[in-house]
Amino acid sequence: MNETQPITQKKRILVLTGQHVSGPCEALLTLKRDYDVMEVSSIDAAVEALKTEDFAGVFSDSGDFLPLERAVVTQQAAIVLNTIGEGVCIVDSDGRPNWMNQRMRAWPPHVREQVRRTCHEAFENFQKLSQGSDATVVIRSRRYSINLETASLELVVSPVISHGGRVLQLVCVVWDVTVRVGFSRRSTRSTGPGANW
Fold it and tell me: Given this model, what pLDDT does residue 7 score?
């Protein structure tokens, strides 16, 4: 009697080949015997593979590990920052963005300019707070509101402080609160003097 054995699928692993892991080396042959191995020869190729496929493990030379980890962390951070649905930017002392997520880039130029001006003002305020204080003083985030004809925004601006206590740049998160502010204004009008209840 011939029984059919269930075919178990091998777990897929990624191997970043390098100086010590390449060609027919014993470690790689052993991995191939027990796993479905995808070999790549560069950190860029490894990051691309990690974007598109799931792996049970990743193997690399120890010298390639830190650059690969940094690349993966950077890629994952970009996914988070582009997925959260709020505008996020990192700005310099003039409020100019060094980096913006997709949501922030989608705002019209006049809105981004108002955010830039607010961040510039915030930078100056944080600098004043940091002057004369020692590096152990914690400078907390600040909230700002921007009310334009077409939109109402709330910003949370946080300083990036050097070890010496100097403000280096700001991280800004921008929420569109137009609907909430509009609702609040309408409900205030309907419950104000002369409202019929």
Answer: 60
Q: What is the full DSSP assignment across 4-56?
A: PPPPPPPPEEEEE--SSS-TT-HHHHHHHHHSEEEEESSHHHHHHHHHH---S
pTM for the structure as a whole: 0.57
* Domains of the chain, residue spans: 12-82, 84-183
Q: How many CB atoms lie within 10 A of CB 159?
A: 22
Instruction: Please state, rounded to an integer, the average pLDDT across all residues of the chain.
Output: 79
**What fold does the segment set 84-183 form as a domain?**
Beta-Lactamase (3.30.450)
Within 10 angstroms of residue 36's Cβ, the number of other Cβ atoms is 13
Strands of the sheet with 152-161, listed across from one edge: 97-100, 87-91, 167-176, 152-161, 142-147
